[in-house]
Amino acid sequence: MTFVLGYLAAVVPLVAVAVAALWPPRWWQVALLVGGPVLTGLAVLEVAGLQHLGWIAIFGIPYVYLVALPLVPWRRAWARVAVPLTVIAVVCLFVGLARFEVAVAFYLAMPFVAAVVGLVLAVVSRRDRRRAAAHPEPAD
Q1: Half-sphere exposure of 15 toward its Cβ, with a 13 Å CA cutoff?
Q2: What is the pTM of this model?
Q3: What is the predicted pLDDT for the residue at 2?
Q4: 95-139 pLDDT tens trace
Q5: What angle, 0 to 180 degrees and rounded to 10, lies between the N-to-C axes of helices 109-134 and 77-97?
Q6: What is the pLDDT of residues 90-103, one digit of tens each?
Q7: How many other C-beta atoms are found inside a 10 Å radius of the C-beta of residue 27?
Q8: Which of 1, 52, 53, 93 has its CA 20 to 30 A from that of 124?
Q9: What's the mean pLDDT when you consider all of the chain?
Q10: 81 Cβ partners below 8 Å, 6+ apart?
Q11: What are the DSSP calls for the chain, one per residue?
């Protein structure tokens, strides 16, 4: 049961923010966001052909969400900040619940770094957009 709660604590906030950022999502975006949790559910239920994915699905899919989603170049400006901040919140929650255990902090260091890089990219891209809007280049 602990794994289910941990999985839900990692995946649900990220998928919720990503769906809000993509709204209305296209079919392939829904497949990418919902496919991971569905695959995990099928692996946990030991569906034929997927029963050997158990631990990979339980730990790997949330890890991929934590690392990849903050680096996506979201079209909406609020999402470029909200997704990395959600990742940082999830990482801090897990590290705090683990009482700052070194192994957990080490495992979650890469998602934390990805989220910080995502925030830096959001700030830099916003600054570049403001600069381009203030000084449009003349057309040839």
Answers
A1: 20
A2: 0.80
A3: 65
A4: 888 888 888 888 889 999 999 999 999 888 876 566 556 656 655
A5: 160
A6: 999 888 888 888 88
A7: 7
A8: 93
A9: 83
A10: 119, 122
A11: -HHHHHHHHHHHHHHHHHHHHHSSPPHHHHHHHHHHHHHHHHHHTT-TTTGGGHHIIIIIHHHHHHHHGGGS--SSHHHHHHHHHHHHHHHHHHHHHTTT-HHHHHHTHHHHHHHHHHHHHHHHHHHHHHHHHHSPPPP-
Q: Using alpha carbons only, give the angle 6, 77, 21 rounded to the nearest 5 degrees.
A: 45
- 26-32 contacts: CB < 8 A, separation 24 or more? none
> What's the burial of 74, exposed, middle or buried (CB within 10 Å: 0-12/13-18/19+)?
buried
For the stretch 2-43, pLDDT in tens is 667 777 888 889 889 988 998 888 888 888 888 888 888 888
Do 4 and 26 form a contact (C-beta atoms < 8 A)? Answer: no
Whether residue 51 has pLDDT greater than 80: no
